[in-house]
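Checklist before submission:
- one chain only
- standard amino acids only
- sequence pasted in full

Submission:
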Amino acid sequence: MVSACSPPDAKPERLTSLDVFRGATIAAMILVNNPGDESRTFAPLLHAAWSGWTFTDTIFPSFLWIAGVAMTISFGRRLERGDSRRKLFLHVLKRSVILYLIGVFLGLAPEFHFATVRVLGVLQRIAICYLAASAIFLTAKLRGQILWCAALLGIYSVVMLLVPVPGVGAGSLTREANMERYIDGLLLTGHMWSHTRYWDPEGIVSTLPAICSMLFGIFTGHLLASGRSKQEKAAWLLSSGVVGLAIGAFLDNWFMPINKNLWTVSFAVFMAGISASGFGLCYWLIDVNGFKRGSKPAVVFGMNAIASYVLADFIAGPLDMIQLGHGNGVSTAHDAIFRLFQSIVPSAQWASFAFALTIAGAVYVAAWLLYRRKMFIRI
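Returned file contents:
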């Protein structure tokens, strides 16, 4: 659905800092998803090979966390004005189904090989987490939401650490043998990410702590909706971020490693700490101190976040299919553009980054045109 309304600046009650943080997250996601050459990309713009983390690993959990914050504020306002919880949940269900189907469609296009379509993915995970976290928010108060979060993390931990992987035993978290990979192999064979084939980074078991990433955002939303002063909220955001980082680091050393591929408990907690710290800084700068200089590009992305993400796929995808040249000189449009950048910039890594920046720039132009026309695409 496309809605026409005033830009965020005209709504004093709107959290501009949340739009900025969301927009920066989407821009970063577009950059890391569209390198000119993945094998010649700056290390921070790649996911960690297995355990550990890079800048790129912070992006997806941050988006889930942001969705949780926004959900708490939006649903709270709608409940205050008299909307029923049933009406809200039906709205959530509709949005989740549409978002899930968009994710499947992007995985199908352009060949539409249904026999090997990836049933889970980034948008599919967002849809599932949004549905589950919304159901928890609408049926439980804060204490119950915390208990749900603890239960999901507990169930995940039991499955990953105590249930034996056939032929290996319990507690294995290696790439070759872990319960996530085993369950994905049982239920998702032929429908996983083509780069991995035998397991999916948005797999079944790891969805449980991913839901908690959104719940951590919901907890922050409760703080922002409270009657505390803006200065107090900023202090709580930054301090809770530090606590999350400390607990995540402790769990990384003594419980299970930080691992985005498995979305381990330590990863979920550590990344919630990064999100709270990053947003806390945005909130302190923008909503507490009124420092908005240079934030408009991020707001433009943030006001049409999902649309920007999908548009990036529609721009970058065809570049891999368009063939140029003849005979042995055939190459894709993607490769041709990358070689052009290589001839201009000093290194292959910078050429790869320039390619990604071009995709992000093209998406920004489209998002800016929508923003200028006060058109905000809502699913």
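Reviewer check: The chain has one domain: 2-320+330-377.
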